[in-house]
Amino acid sequence: MLIKIMNRRRAKSRKVGDLRRLMRYLFTPKLSAEPMGARLLGPPELHQLLLNDRPWGDEVDDAAFDLADQLWRYCREARIGQSMPIVWYVHVICSFAPAATESLRSPPDPYPTPARWASTAKNAIRVTSDAMDFLGWTLNRPSVFVVHGDREHIHVHVVAAIPTAGDDDWAILRLSRREINKVAKICAEAFNIPVAPRIATSYYGAWEAIHGGADDPSGHHSV
Predict the structure, then answer these.
(1) pLDDT at residue 151 above 80?
(2) CA distances from 47 to 104, 141, 199 (A)
(3) Domain boundaries, the chain
(4) pLDDT tens, position by position, 165-197
(5) If we measure between CA atoms, which residue out of 161, 172, 169 comes closest to residue 73?
(6) Cα–Cα distance between 35 and 102 in angstroms, integer?
(7) What is the CA radius of gyration of the chain?
C-alpha cells in the first residue's frame, strides 16, 4: 500500500480548469492508447457533492465540470474576504500492490461498519477512507473517491477540498513523507494487505521527478 500526494508542490495558483481536466481524466473509462485493464472499477463515492450526470459515456465532461465547479464554490465560500491558497484542493492516490487484489475482495474489517462491502472497488475505498482519516480528512469535506484498475495495481484517486466552511484549513500538505508512510503502514497492517507495491513506488517516483508534482500521473493532461 502506497499513499502519494500528487499536487503537493505548486508555483502557480490552481484554477478551476485544472480541476476540470483532472476530473475528466478520473471519469474517462478508457483511453485507447492504454494497454492495461478497465480504468473505472466502480462508480465514484462523493462526500458533500452532488452528481447530476453519470461520469462516463457522453456525460464525462458534464460530470467533471459540475463537480469541479461545486468544489471551487465550496472553497471560495470558506475563504470569503481572504485570498485563495495556491493549492486549494488535494489530489491523493492510494495504491495497492498487485498481490493485494485478492485481499481486497474480502479484507478483515477492524472497525464496525453499517453493511458488508459489495465489491473490490468499495473495499479499496473503505481502506483508503480509513487512511484519509489518519491524514486529517473529515466527512464534511467535499471529496471525490474514484477507483482505477488500468495499472498492474488497483489505486484510488481522492480529490478533496482544503479550505472548508466551519472547519480549519487542512494541514495535509504539510505532512512529511515519513508521516504519510507511517499511515500507509498502519492501514495496511490493520487490513492485512501488503504495505507498498514496488511497481507503484517506482512509477509515481519517476513520474514526479519529470513533472514536479502535477496532478495527472497518466501524462494526458499535466497542468
Answers:
(1) no
(2) 22, 7, 30
(3) 2-211
(4) 877 778 898 998 889 989 998 988 888 887 655
(5) 161
(6) 22
(7) 17
Tell me what the pLDDT averaged over the chain comes to.
78
d(CA 17, CA 11): 16
> H/E/C letters for each residue in the chain?
CEEEECCCCCCCCCCHHHHHHHHHHHHCCCCCCCCCCCCECCCCEEECCCCCCCCCHHHHHHHHHHHHHHHHHHHHHHCCCCCCCCCCEEEEEEECCHHHHHHHHCCCCCCCCCCCCCCHHHHHHHHHHHHHHHCCCCCCCCEEEEEECCCCCCEEEEEEECCCCCCCCCCHHHCCHHHHHHHHHHHHHHCCCCCCCHHHHHHHHHHHHHHCCCCCCCCCCCC
The rounded distance, in Å, linking the Cα atoms of 123 and 106 is 8
Mean pLDDT of 5-13: 73
* 14-44-38 Cα angle (round to 5): 100
- CA dist., res. 201 & res. 132, Å (int): 19
Q: Which CATH number fits domain 2-211: 3.40.50, 1.10.4100, 3.30.1490, 3.30.930?
A: 3.30.930
CB of 37 within 8 A of CB of 150? yes
Using CA atoms, how far apart are residues 37 and 146, in angstroms rounded to an integer?
A: 15
The predicted model scores a pTM of 0.81
- The dihedral of CA 168, 172, 175, 180: what is its sign? positive
